[in-house]
């Protein structure tokens, strides 16, 4: 019986409806007018879209079952191993860096805009490092390995990636004066939108979103980020604002003459959970073992993916 209750709790957690049902059971319906109520209404949106996207795939005979299977196994493993690691790293970074903040901000709309721009910079730094440092790429590659794009990829992450990301992003934000309460609000907004931009062609074929395409990063931009085509590789690192991608020269729009091909450049077995989840780590370990000299071994860890000691 306890197992069934745990399973039911995990299902509700995945669907993001636990908080919603708690409000319904308490009959405190006015709570829906508060920030907690708004969060309770927003949390289920992405999981429900995942389910809808999967159903549409079956209807259109594009079930993409391999992608969903690997993403689901990744989600389950991460839930078992890393439930609280990321939150712990958040708390540590806030505690360590709060006293080193370079400026003091307040809860006003203009400081919120400032904080969001800072958050996108912090996200850019983490995301850039995840692509350009091979050791960090090993943590991030699980997210890029699927060769189809759909919302289930939101859950496809190596369990140590979130702590690594939160150390970088939280540290930068706190040092640049973003207060913790505002940071958590931004993380919720950005996390929700960051999940949505993974929506696949089965649900939304053309995801440029009209004029918004020039103002913010849309699912179309993020599809480019997940592409392995040469013109698209390592582009569009931000989630919502395209300020930093434009500033640092990594902004890229979708080109009709260059259809997107998803995945990573290494030949992988997309149906294999082991290869998707651990494949890059296995290849890095092999390269480090076979590399001549300590310096070359270190270079394999910290040089960009694709670097070879015998191709200098």
In short:
With 312 residues, the protein is mainly alpha-helical.
Describe the model.
By secondary structure, the protein is mainly alpha-helical. It has one domain (69-311). The protein has helices at 2-15, 18-26, 35-42, 45-59, 65-81, 85-97, 109-132, 134-144, 161-175, 180-196, 219-225, 243-248, 273-290, 294-302.
Number of strands: 0
How many domain regions? 1
Label the overall shape: globular
Class of secondary structure makeup: mainly alpha
How many helices?
14
Which residues form runs of ≥5 with pLDDT under 50? Answer: none
Overall average residue pLDDT: 85
- Largest sheet descriptor: none
Q: Termini, distance in Å?
A: 61 Å
Give the SSE order as H and E letters. Answer: HHHHHHHHHHHHHH
Report helical residue fraction.
55-70%
Radius of gyration using CA atoms only: 20 Å
> Per DSSP, what share of the residues sits in E-state strands of 2 or more residues?
under 5%
List its traits.
312 residues
Describe the secondary structure blueprint for this structure.
Layout: H1 2-15, H2 18-26, H3 35-42, H4 45-59, H5 65-81, H6 85-97, H7 109-132, H8 134-144, H9 161-175, H10 180-196, H11 219-225, H12 243-248, H13 273-290, H14 294-302
Helix pairs in contact: 2-3, 6-9, 7-8, 7-9, 7-10, 8-13, 13-14
